[in-house]
Write a structure and sequence with these properties.
Length: 136
């Protein structure tokens, strides 16, 4: 069963990275819950795919409009119970500062039920996500 969840998360990320954000978000349940990174300015639980998407789109203000195009999937790990750890890398240029941001880490623990992502915990580092997953 874990292979199917990993494949779903991989497909959603690949589509998102390709630039088709609408298709990427279509993998999420309408009533999904998202948790932004702990140190993100607008923290707190986000209820619903549209709320998660608005928050995520707000990252464009920090990283620029095209930052997701440089994303790469570094690792996907089945944690069991429909939970998948995704470790992603990306590069960008600070939208306001113009400072180049190389070798950035982003991670998420997704929960998949059926054919949809129903929960996503996001982290601004792989280690924090691994700790939250109980791997470190």
């Amino acid at each position: 069963m874990g292979e199917e969840e990993v494949a779903l998360v991989r497909r959603s990320l690949e589509v998102f990275i390709s630039g088709d954000r609408d298709a990427g978000w279509s993998f999420w349940a309408d009533d999904a819950v998202g948790i932004p990174p702990a140190d993100w300015p607008e923290g707190g639980e986000l209820r619903g795919r549209d709320a998660i998407r608005r928050q995520f789109d707000g990252w464009n203000a920090v990283f620029g409009e095209e930052w997701t195009r440089s994303m790469r999937i570094e690792a996907l790990r089945d944690l069991g119970d429909g939970r998948i750890l995704a470790e992603l890398g990306f590069e960008s240029t600070g939208a306001g500062s113009g400072v180049r941001l190389a070798d950035q880490e982003l991670a998420a623990i997704y929960t998949v039920r059926g054919e949809e992502i129903v929960h996503g915990d996001f982290f601004m580092g792989w280690r924090a996500a691994r700790e939250a997953a109980g791997l470190e």
